[in-house]
Write a structure and sequence with these properties.
Layout lengths: L1 E7 L4 E2 L4 E6 L5 E6 L5 E2 L10 E8 L1 H6 L8 E8 L6 E8 L2 E4 L4
Length: about 110
């Protein structure tokens, strides 16, 4: 399973209502689209079977900052990652602020 969450480190709060797209990284084929819940999470993209390989999450953060009337340097964040074991849970958190972002392999 693949999941994610977004934390706005500028406000210290979850980033709700952010569109997140999941792609095959090699073909850029769209697999699924989801929107973060009020807790800034996408717990499940609704995909039950994954193959080993490279994937990409795209986070559309410009609209999120626009609603707050805040300019951002990064309108979209793209994170590529590799699935080696299809039986593991892959959690990819995103920490954002108007002029920076970071990520890590979560649990």
């Amino acid at each position: 399973m693949i999941s994610t969450h977004i934390l706005d480190t500028n406000l210290g709060k979850p980033a709700a209502h952010v569109e997140v797209k999941l792609f095959h990284a090699e073909t850029h084929e769209l697999i699924a689209t989801a929107t973060t819940n009020p807790d800034g999470r996408v717990s499940d993209f609704g995909i039950r079977e994954f193959a080993e390989g490279a994937y990409q999450l795209e986070f559309e953060i410009a609209p999120y900052f626009s609603l707050q009337q805040v300019k951002t340097f990064f309108p979209r964040v793209c994170i590529q990652f590799f699935i080696e074991d299809i039986n593991q849970h892959y959690h990819i958190p995103l920490l954002i602020s108007p002029f920076a972002y970071s990520t890590y392999r979560g649990s």
